[in-house]
Each structure stands twice: as structure tokens, then as C-alpha cells.
Design goal:
By secondary structure, the protein is an alpha+beta fold. It is built from seven helices and 24 strands. The longest helix has 18 residues.
Length: 372
């Protein structure tokens, strides 16, 4: 039986206004779960998906709506974020045969002796042991470093590197209990032990979200080229892709000091530093946009199409060609799941902007929309 779209909108509005009854909330939850399972590909853990989507429903439907076009797109994004396409695709966009599946948990672990281990193919359980460190893989895309029970006073030496390809992501639990989420096309170089020395230092290429264990006597330092982020214990995101041309550090909790050459700034929660052309600046930002990827979302707020497509290319492992260079400056705002096929995002941008997408092989060509 077709869904009454107006009725669903009324439930969304009641949810926003906090006037929905428990029965209406459950009806809305059941509706979007069913549509999510039918219309999108999500992580295997259904409990995680459902709870994450439920927690974000309220803030997605209360997004600022600055103008008519953004208003329409925000409404469409609400539907997309909960896995639905009711009434959105009135005309075909990216063809099904040209569609691309989203990224997934995949990475390579490089041990201290240079041995490569595919975390994509390795079975869950212990996959390596180096000195007094046990390295295991969980069944949920997580690499865990654990000090063995017979640890002596000699610290483990050497480094490991975790590398995600385009279309990959992975989570790492460091020897000190700190957690790192690696985005697509990124790498993290880490010591086997933080026991030796007065600091905990890792090296990042690409993007990662950090939840650092609190050890005041041993600051945690993230190096990205000549850029350093120093913390004691906090939650933050570092985006340092070489082709972005800048490095952004976004703080969720705690306090961090960002240093680049002779420049240094201290961030408070809700602030973001940006290093570009040796200039280090600080601004207040919507922190949810910076970490949306970690929670399984694309979240763009009036972002340049060129920047959006860089993120899309990394996650879906595709190439992007602008046939009209001026379109790089087009801006879009959208919130969609990262676990749907690429057509979900491309079709909504086609219907709300002045662009059209053509797929050939694994390349997406972007051109101006032709008059109807």
C-alpha cells in the first residue's frame, strides 16, 4: 500500500514540535526502518543503524532553511537520511547500471617488519603479535592493540601503519585505549607502545576522528606534515588530505593546541582551525558537519561542488571530471547516508541544482543541466 507522504510529513512535524504521541513516534520509527532496509545499503549491525538514525532525526528536521531552494533540499535530505525516496525521483537520474556501491570496512595493516596484512580478508580474532603487543580484529571493522598479560618493563619498539583505500574505513584502538576512526584513503602510523617517552605521537595522512584517553603526564600528538595537534584527552577530527590544499582540525570536547611552524592556536569545543598557505586561522563551525562521515553520513552545508565531489570520489572509489569548470563553485546543502549507492546523492543534486551527471566506467562527468 503506498505511503501517504503528507501523513509522514505531519508525523515529522509533530516529532520536531515534541507533540508526537508514543504511538506516532513508533510508527515513524517503523516506517523509516522499513524504507531504509528496502532503499539503501547500511552497515550489518541493524541496532547501531537504527539508534544512530533515531538520534539524528530531530536535528536533521530542524536544520536552518535560509531560502526556498535550501528549504526544498533540506526536506529532501530528511527523507534521504532516513532511507526514503518517496516522491523524489519523478524522473530518472543516474542509471541503475551505472551505479556504485558505497565504501565499507577495509584496510591494510603494515607491521614493523614490513609484512602486509589485509584486514578486509583476515578473519576475526588475533592476526599478529609483536613483542608484548597483541593485535586482534573484531567482527565490526575494528583493529585492537592490547598489552599482553606478561608485559615486562621493556617497552615495545617499532611502528605499525593502518591504511584505508578509496572506498574504505576502519577503526583502531591504540595501546593506551584511545580510539581512532580512519576515513577513506587515509593512513595512521603508530608506535607499538606509548610506554617509552613522555608523549604519545602518531602520524596521519587523510582524515581521522580521535577519542583520546586522558593521561595528563603524556600528551597525545597527531602529526600531519608540519602540522601538529597536541591534546591531553579529548574528542576531535583532523582532515589533512593532500589534494584539499588545507588542514582542518575540529574540536568536539576538551581542548587542543594546534601548531604549524611558528604559529599556534588553542581550540575550544565548537571551533575549527584551518591551515592554508602557512596561515593558521580559527573559526566557529557546526561541528556535526566535520564528523558526519564518522557516523555514516554525508553532511554538506552550502559547500562547493568540487569539495563535495572529492569526498564522494574517495568514498565510492571513482574519478570525477568537470566538463564545465565553473560548476566547481556551485554550492549544495544536503544530509544523506554514506551507505546508499552513489545515485542517491547524485540524483538529489541533479534535482536541486543546475548540474547533471554522466557515468562512464568509474568516472563521473559533471556538466551543466540542459533545458528541459
Amino acid at each position: 500500500m503506498p505511503v501517504d507522504q503528507e501523513y509522514i510529513y505531519s508525523l515529522l512535524r509533530k516529532y520536531k514540535d515534541r507533540t508526537a504521541t508514543e504511538a506516532e513516534k513508533e510508527e515513524l520509527a517503523t516506517w523509516y526502518r522499513q524504507r531504509a532496509e528496502r532503499d539503501a545499503v547500511f552497515p550489518e549491525d541493524e541496532h547501531v543503524v537504527g539508534e544512530s538514525m533515531r538520534a539524528r532525526l530531530n536535528y536533521e528536521i530542524t536544520r536552518p532553511q535560509r531560502e526556498h531552494r535550501r528549504h526544498w533540499l533540506a526536506a529532501a535530505s530528511i527523507l534521504l537520511i532516513i532511507g526514503v525516496g518517496v516522491g523524489l525521483y519523478l524522473r530518472p537520474g543516474v542509471a541503475e547500471q551505472d551505479d556504485f556501491a558505497p565504501g565499507r570496512h577495509q584496510a591494510v595493516l603494515v607491521l614493523a617488519d614490513g609484512t602486509n596484512i589485509s584486514l578486509t580478508e583476515a578473519a576475526a580474532g588475533q592476526i599478529a603479535s609483536e613483542q608484548n603487543i597483541q593485535i586482534t580484529k573484531s567482527g565490526e571493522g575494528q583493529l585492537i592493540y592490547t598489552l599482553t598479560s606478561n608485559v615486562n618493563h621493556t617497552a615495545a619498539t617499532g611502528y605499525n601503519t593502518v591504511e584505508t583505500p578509496k572506498g574504505g574505513q576502519y577503526q583502531v584502538v591504540l595501546p593506551d585505549g584511545s580510539k581512532v576512526w580512519l576515513n577513506a584513503y587515509s593512513s595512521l602510523r603508530l608506535p607499538l607502545s606509548f610506554s617509552d617517552g613522555k608523549e604519545r605521537r602518531v602520524e596521519l595522512k587523510g582524515e581521522a576522528y580521535f577519542e583520546v584517553s586522558h593521561h595528563p603526564e603524556r600528551p597525545f600528538i597527531v602529526m600531519s606534515g608540519g602540522h601538529a595537534v597536541q591534546v591531553l584527552g579529548t574528542h576531535f577530527n583532523v582532515k589533512a588530505y593532500a589534494d584539499d590544499g588545507d588542514i582542518k582540525t575540529s574540536l568536539l570536547e576538551g581542548k587542543v593546541r594546534v601548531t604549524a611552524g611558528a604559529n599556534s592556536v588553542t581550540l575550544a569545543p565548537g571551533q575549527q582551525s584551518r591551515l592554508a598557505a602557512e596561515n593558521l586561522t580559527v573559526s566557529d563551525v557546526d561541528i556535526r558537519e566535520a564528523v558526519a562521515w564518522k557516523d555514516g553520513y554525508f553532511r554538506f552545508d552550502d559547500e562547493r561542488l568540487e569539495d563535495i565531489m572529492r569526498s564522494v570520489a574517495r568514498w565510492y572509489d571513482v574519478d570525477v571530471v568537470f566538463e564545465n569548470a565553473a560548476l566547481k563553485e556551485e554550492t549544495f546543502g544536503a544530509v544523506t547516508t554514506r551507505f546508499a549507492n552513489i545515485s542517491t546523492l547524485l540524483n538529489i543534486m541533479e534535482q536541486t541544482g543546475d548540474v547533471q551527471f554522466r557515468v562512464a566506467g568509474r568516472t563521473i562527468y559533471i556538466s551543466s543541466k540542459q533545458p528541459a
